[in-house]
Amino acid sequence: MSRGINGKKSFYLDDLILCIREENGFERSWRETILRAVSLVAEGLTSKNSSFTFLHNMIALETVLLRQGDEHKIELPRRVQAFIGWSSEWDSKRYLEKIGIIYNKRCLYVHDGEIETITAEDVDFTDHLLHNVFNNILKHPKLFPSKNKLVEFSAKVTAERLLGISPVRSKYLPRTIGLTTMN
After folding, report:
1. I want to staple 157 with a disulfide (CB 3.0 to 4.6 A). Which of 16, 77, 82, 130 is the partner?
2. 178: closest CA among 132, 109, 116?
3. How many other CB atoms are found less than 10 A from the CB of residue 34?
């Protein structure tokens, strides 16, 4: 198992190796997208510069979860929420608010060159999001064989949430989707 910046184990490494294999069920372009995102994360992990790591993590999240033309500020939290919004931690640890904060910091970095606001906690949070998103995608190749299926899944889970359907009664949220808690 690999270790993240703060020594956290990356449990999705074995699943990532399986992702590379063609017979796993992921469409070729989706496999390539996942591998590009993982390369970004790996490049960030090798840097001692936390703002560089943060930016690479954010780009990796956007690479996996967003499509060209998506409204990033709206769709990024919505897609993350589809994976981990059912957890009690979503509200208690203010994930939605934190995603908004890191997205704003990403924009300030990219558009204004502001890096002084990026903290170690921001890097840890993006590590945490990536860990859980990768874990859930890679463990469910039949559910997420393509980015389009991931987007459809997110839309269905979001619709259920808007209708007040609990995760326990969800038609779309498999019980095998997990969340590794933050420290």
Report:
1. 82
2. 132
3. 22
